[in-house]
Amino acid sequence: MWAPDMNARERRLSERMPEVTGFPPRACSAASGGSTTPASEKPFHYSYLKEFRVEQCKAFLQHKCNQHRPFTCFNWHFMNQRRRRPVKRRDGTFNYSPDVYCTLYDENTGVCPNSDDCPYLHRTAGDTERRYHLRYYKTSTCVYETDVRGYCVKNGPHCAFAHGPHDLRSPVYDIRELAGVEDEVGSMVSSLEREKGVLVDDLRWQESSFVLTYYKTEPCKRPPRLCRQGYACPFYHNNKDRRRSPRHFKYRSTPCPNVKLNDEWGDPSHCEQGDGCCYCHTRTEQQFHPEIYKSTKCNDVQQTGYCPRASFCAFAHDEKELSAPRELTDEPMTTAPSPLVVCLHTSPLVLHRIITTWEFLINVCVCLVDRLVPKGENEEEK
């Protein structure tokens, strides 16, 4: 499969931060008690983790920065934009938490009485300390498309979310979180084993009518740390991610004026009518509305030939999807279809996956029989 040229995108972005891309891959100062090593990080990611909004812009001090309005500068201009460099210390802990916010930090002045030694997260402008933390930066995929320059249409050139599989990175965990995850996983491993193949095994999510009917209409049952979240999970994780079922709620494709102000979607709870409102309450509700779903072409496919959202993309990937009727399915979500029904109503590509899966299961059964039944037991006595 063709993949976007991430190196080309990195080169374009590096033009906006020439003072950063050339720094030597050395460890942080000994005073920090640990290091941020580039061994397991791509140079582009390492630059952001180590340097983004850590130093003040020298051009701004001379009133010469042309990236102040709108603020897209790689460095910080005011103290409340300043970000501390995240470091994993030798004892396996972070120098500041990626999840717990400091209650003493002043969001207006950017000052904390504990200064850089504060072990908690500072709510900086743009929430940069959390978004660009070793724990979260580029660990989940962005729900927005990119423009012709490769920039995120929503978050601009410094988007903290991945655009394509080559832009993803593995999260770095605090040793205390790892210990907690191990206990959590151990207690629910059996249930996760039953659920782990839902997105792959339930082939109905490959069908546009099923996605249009059920995408983001049911809550996700997985623990937050064990779910991919974002568009990659067909279930919602919060109110802003939720979509009212188009089968049970009748609402227009127009945004609710009480929820969407200017270009920003607020919390659906701002609307007093709740689920009874006749307008859209979330971006997901609007994009996956039967009147809008697949009615325009996907910008990622047009620009790069690749879309990271796959079957969960609300935009058309080809002329067939663009002209296809946008109809809801009558099939219930809770009951999985029989193999025969799936075979009769699915595409050749999905059908091939079904056949391959059944061949694998048959081979497993044969191997089990060979191991459990002693040789000669089924042979007739001579």
TrEMBL record:
Matching Pfam families: zf-CCCH, zf-CCCH_11, zf-CCCH_UNK, zf-CCCH_UNK-like_4th, zf_CCCH_5
Primary location group: cytoplasm
GO molecular function, one term: zinc ion binding
Subcellular location field: Cytoplasm
Zinc fingers, C3H1-type class: 96-125, 136-166, 292-320
InterPro entries: UNK_Znf_1, UNK_Znf_4, UNK_Znf_5, Unkempt-like, Znf_CCCH, Znf_CCCH_sf
PROSITE patterns: ZF_C3H1
Domain of life: Eukaryota
Keywords for the protein's UniProt record, in alphabetical order: Cytoplasm, Metal-binding, Repeat, Zinc, Zinc-finger
Domain C3H1-type: residue ranges: 96-125, 136-166, 292-320
Gene Ontology CC: cytoplasm
Zinc-finger as UniProt keyword: yes
Keyword Cell cycle applies: no
Protein family membership: Belongs to the unkempt family.
Protein name listed in UniProt: RING finger protein unkempt
